[in-house]
């Protein structure tokens, strides 16, 4: 198929997305208006899965033991690759959809439906996969460990942002809860009988801060106090903190987190308290598949979207998409929806704004067109697979 024919075929996808744009906006804004925390996205996952089922997808719910996870499958007319389009739909505590997951979920669902509308005989299989609890819960980590993505030839999702980029990286991270146990006593009458769990907590913060000077530039450690005691006139017998530790790779993260944990253990022991460390799931570093990203970039540019190069240094976050990228070719591009920074009240407004809905429309088209490329162009698919195999053979060097 020559370039002119390919562009004509892809115009069918553009038209299909635009035809349903009002539907996509409606569901996205409904999710935005009803924010739900990770593993509790009962409304959002149902709305998205029901919509896919209504449009002819076969939907499996409660995937990998997660109530709000789903897989919606549509098969074309003949054998071909299986392409995953990943949906997120959890919100942030206190900030709602200040990470724009209403757009992520809706654009994934929209891409799958638009492909089916435009090419009912597409040579391939599309799986729209609902992945809960990206914001710390690590739904994709659990789903990766359960083999949910193993049968995919490639996977993609699009994250809203304040710049359009296709090769933005991400670093590894792990969350941990520190529980400090002391002994209550009257803070004025008999403080000598108490063991201060809050001192253990505060000393731990100070010890972690003292490590920062000696961490590499790509390491980030940040935490909050989630329980600091019950009353000022009682020696705190129980306190709690929540931390996230980040490093460039999972391998590097192992050493960094042990230094943090040791700082907490020794700070706790110094005041006679005890500490329980409860470690969460580990998010792997992001592995963007370059040929797949280039396909996506070309499709964005074909609809008039300017794509920027990512910054050379700094500013990296973490996402459980990194774990998916360790097992199959994956991309995690960004689409501009406004000027706000992620996890801010400004971004929460951007994710329901007109510019947010325009970005959602663009992301939907780009993912659908990229999935189309992989299904109809064997050379493009092989390039994506070859790049992933090369990465696997060299990743531990």
TrEMBL record:
<dbReference type="InterPro" id="IPR011650">
    <property type="entry name" value="Peptidase_M20_dimer"/>
</dbReference>
<dbReference type="GO" id="GO:0046657">
    <property type="term" value="P:folic acid catabolic process"/>
</dbReference>
<dbReference type="GO" id="GO:0016805">
    <property type="term" value="F:dipeptidase activity"/>
</dbReference>
<dbReference type="InterPro" id="IPR052030">
    <property type="entry name" value="Peptidase_M20/M20A_hydrolases"/>
</dbReference>
<dbReference type="Pfam" id="PF07687">
    <property type="entry name" value="M20_dimer"/>
</dbReference>
<dbReference type="InterPro" id="IPR002933">
    <property type="entry name" value="Peptidase_M20"/>
</dbReference>
<dbReference type="Pfam" id="PF01546">
    <property type="entry name" value="Peptidase_M20"/>
</dbReference>
<feature type="region of interest" description="Disordered">
    <location>
        <begin position="339"/>
        <end position="359"/>
    </location>
</feature>
<protein>
    <recommendedName>
        <fullName>Peptidase M20 domain-containing protein 2</fullName>
    </recommendedName>
</protein>
<comment type="similarity">
    <text>Belongs to the peptidase M20A family.</text>
</comment>
<feature type="domain" description="Peptidase M20 dimerisation">
    <location>
        <begin position="175"/>
        <end position="266"/>
    </location>
</feature>
<dbReference type="GO" id="GO:0005737">
    <property type="term" value="C:cytoplasm"/>
</dbReference>
<dbReference type="GO" id="GO:0071713">
    <property type="term" value="F:para-aminobenzoyl-glutamate hydrolase activity"/>
</dbReference>
<dbReference type="InterPro" id="IPR036264">
    <property type="entry name" value="Bact_exopeptidase_dim_dom"/>
</dbReference>
<dbReference type="InterPro" id="IPR017144">
    <property type="entry name" value="Xaa-Arg_dipeptidase"/>
</dbReference>
<dbReference type="InterPro" id="IPR017439">
    <property type="entry name" value="Amidohydrolase"/>
</dbReference>
């Amino acid at each position: 198929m020559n370039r002119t024919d390919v562009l004509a075929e892809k115009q069918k996808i553009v038209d299909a997305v635009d035809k349903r744009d009002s539907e996509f906006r409606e569901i996205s804004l409904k999710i935005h208006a009803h924010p739900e925390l990770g593993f509790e996205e009962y409304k959002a996952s149902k709305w998205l899965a029901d919509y896919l089922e209504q449009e002819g997808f076969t939907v499996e719910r409660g995937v990998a033991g997660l109530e709000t996870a789903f897989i919606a499958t549509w098969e074309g007319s003949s054998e071909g690759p299986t392409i995953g389009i990943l949906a997120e739909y959890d919100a942030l505590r206190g900030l709602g959809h200040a990470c724009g997951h209403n757009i992520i979920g809706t654009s994934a669902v929209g891409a799958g439906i638009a492909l089916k509308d435009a090419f009912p005989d597409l040579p391939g299989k599309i799986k729209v996969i609902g992945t809960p609890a990206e914001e710390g819960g690590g739904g994709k980590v659990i789903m990766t460990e359960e083999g949910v993505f193993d049968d995919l030839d490639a996977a993609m999702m699009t994250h809203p942002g304040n710049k359009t980029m296709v090769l933005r990286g991400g670093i590894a991270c792990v969350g941990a809860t520190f529980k400090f146990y002391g002994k209550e006593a009257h803070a004025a009458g008999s403080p000598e009988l108490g063991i201060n769990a809050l001192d253990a907590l505060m000393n731990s913060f100070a010890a972690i801060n003292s490590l920062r000077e000696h961490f590499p530039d790509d390491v980030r450690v940040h935490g909050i106090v989630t329980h600091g005691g019950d009353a000022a006139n009682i020696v705190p017998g129980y306190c709690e903190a929540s931390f996230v530790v980040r490093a460039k790779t999972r391998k590097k993260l192992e050493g960094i987190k042990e230094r943090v944990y040791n700082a907490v253990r020794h700070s706790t022991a110094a005041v006679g308290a005890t500490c329980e460390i409860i470690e969460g799931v580990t998010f792997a570093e992001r592995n963007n598949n370059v040929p797949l990203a280039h396909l996506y970039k070309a499709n964005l540019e074909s609809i008039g979207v300017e794509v920027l190069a990512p910054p050379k240094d700094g500013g990296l976050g973490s996402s459980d998409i990194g774990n998916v990228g360790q097992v199959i070719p994956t991309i995690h591009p960004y689409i501009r929806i406004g000027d706000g920074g992620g996890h801010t009240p400004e971004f929460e407004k951007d994710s329901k704004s007109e510019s947010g809905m325009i970005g959602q429309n663009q992301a939907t088209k780009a993912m659908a067109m990229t999935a189309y490329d992989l299904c109809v162009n064997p050379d493009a698919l092989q390039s994506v697979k070859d790049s992933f195999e090369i990465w696997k053979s060299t990743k531990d060097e």
